[in-house]
Amino acid sequence: MMEIINKIFTSYELVGAFMYVAFVMALGKFLSKVIRQKNMASAIAILIGLVLAYFAGVFTGGEKGVSDTAWLAGVGLLGGGMFRDYAIISTAFGADINNIKKAGLPGIIALLLGVASSFFIGALVAYWMGYQSAVDMATIGGGAATFVVGPVVGTALGASSEVIVISIAAGVIKSVLAIIITPFIAPIIKLNNPTAAMVYGGLVGSTSGVAGGLATVDPELVPYGAMTATFYTGLGSLLCPSIGYMIINALF
Q1: CA dist list (Å): 84 to 8, 89, 114
Q2: Among candidates 115, 99, 141, which has minimal Cα distance to 203?
Q3: Residues of the chain with pLDDT under 50
Q4: Contacting residues for 193 by C-beta, under 8 A, at least 6 apart
Q5: Alpha-carbon distance 186 to 157, whole Å?
Q6: Nearest to 26 by CA among 45, 40, 11
Q7: Among positive and negative, which fits the CA dihedral 13, 2, 57, 21?
């Protein structure tokens, strides 16, 4: 039996990666039932993945988490840009163009407001933490937008690897919080229709956080929230290292 398992994980790396992700998701769902918080299954699964990645880095001395181990090398491919972009595009294809048009001006305003507020709040927190150069503030501010925007800003502006890692951590925390908080605030903000989901996606911006949160509210809302959240990532990658950085550089 062990020989078969070893062959699956070493010879068929991508299959092994899917099995690993399925196990983490199942464990997250089980633990959410144990603590009687079914809406937190995705957040728990993310936390488990982060913890396992940390210990894998400690034991292997690598920098790519569990993908540095022989059994889980396929996680590096599964978690790479190709599958990420495929997931985003395939999710967006589930949206109805008529409902997208309904978002109109509110959706555009939500995008601009969401990117600007996350970026500048993140930059101010960075300043308070002692990262007071314009490059560092812009990078961490980009991470506060999403964990994708942070590295884009940091690479474009020449930030240190330490600051880029902090920006990624900020984005991951935001994503987890979005998953946890969304089902609780949905009734309050009337997050129960495609237009509201698109505005929400534009304000929050974290594609994974918005998708995970909306999935616990109503799976049919996921494509709409993910649509504007995806635009949010692109808009942040465009504006944060350019206009955002110039504003911070002028002020600080």
Answers
A1: 23, 9, 22
A2: 115
A3: none
A4: 221
A5: 37
A6: 45
A7: positive
Residue 69: how many CB atoms within 10 A of its CB? 16
pLDDT tens across 213-229, in order?
888 788 888 888 887 88
What is the C-alpha separation between 188 and 107, in angstroms, rounded?
A: 19
- The amino acid that residue 27 corresponds to is L
CB atoms within 10 A of CB 87: 14
Please state the φ and ψ torsions of residue 98, each to the nearest 5 degrees.
Answer: -65, -40
Half-sphere exposure of 61 (CA within 13 A, CB side): 0
- Tens digit of each residue's pLDDT (9 = 90 or more) over 20-71: 888 888 888 888 888 776 667 777 787 888 788 878 777 777 666 777 676 7
Residue 110: both structure tokens together: 């939500």
Q: Are 205 and 177 in contact (CB under 8 A)?
A: no
Q: Are 155 and 246 a contacting pair, CB within 8 Å?
A: no
Q: Secondary structure of the chain in the HEC alphabet?
A: CHHHHHHHHHHCHHHHHHHHHHHHHHHHHHHHHHCCCHHHHHHHHHHHHHHHHHHHHHHHCCCCHHHHCCCCCCHHHHCCHHHHHHHHHHHHCCCCHHHHHHHHHHHHHHHHHHHHHHHHHHHHHHHHCCCCCHHHHHHHHHHHHCCCHHHHHHHHHCCCHHHHHHHHHHHHHHHHHHHHHHHHHHHHHCCCCHHHHHHHHHHHCCHHHHHHHHHHHCHHHHHHHHHHHHHHHHHHHHHHHHHHHHHHHHHC
Report field, pTM of the whole predicted structure over 0.85 = no
